[in-house]
Amino acid sequence: MPKRDKDAEATTPSDALRTYHPVCDAIALILQPYAEVVLHDLASETVSYIANNFSKRDLGEPSLLHEIDFKLNDRTIGPYEKVNFDGRRLKSVSAVLRAPDDRAIAILCINIDVSHIQSAIQVLSAMSTVSIDQGKPAALFKEDWHERVNEYVHGWTTKRGLLIADLTRAQKQQLVRELAEDGAFSGKHAAAYISKILQMGRATVYNYLRDTKA
């Protein structure tokens, strides 16, 4: 009767994957409570380990790897979208784990619950959107030159991909000149306000205005 190799007998494919359990736990922990990490044993094509199990899967159940179109030469799969049993939307990515001989032995799947993010986006969108019919009251903003200056400066810098803090002397001169041409300095204390938002002295603004008129 041939002698059994005790080491080979003691190390099953599932036992070999125990090395990755702390990795699964660490990923789930840093992203808790929004990440589930599932380790699939390719030898048996079953679920070998789950960290933060919110999909309610059982250890040992079929992996159903055809659902992610797994191919043996893959290294990573996704990101791709899934729907949890309770309707929550998941963003998932999978990594193929390989033995030293480059043989695929397991797939580590990270499922992120993005339903909370989508809900937050919907709330923020609803709060930040103003319909045309419910826009600015004409009487209230008719003489609000502060807002007109803010919108002009924001549009001017955005169009050029600039930040106010990064404007050069020449760019500030050009902006002051265009503000003047648009009548922005007609408001009381407008020069003081514009100097403040452009982060320069009031005297500098007056100098730029004199250069414009010269």
From TrEMBL:
<dbReference type="InterPro" id="IPR013559">
    <property type="entry name" value="YheO"/>
</dbReference>
<dbReference type="Pfam" id="PF13309">
    <property type="entry name" value="HTH_22"/>
</dbReference>
<feature type="domain" description="Transcriptional regulator DauR-like HTH">
    <location>
        <begin position="149"/>
        <end position="210"/>
    </location>
</feature>
<protein>
    <submittedName>
        <fullName>Putative transcriptional regulator YheO</fullName>
    </submittedName>
</protein>
<dbReference type="InterPro" id="IPR039446">
    <property type="entry name" value="DauR-like"/>
</dbReference>
<dbReference type="InterPro" id="IPR039445">
    <property type="entry name" value="DauR-like_HTH"/>
</dbReference>
<dbReference type="Pfam" id="PF08348">
    <property type="entry name" value="PAS_6"/>
</dbReference>
<feature type="domain" description="YheO-like">
    <location>
        <begin position="17"/>
        <end position="120"/>
    </location>
</feature>
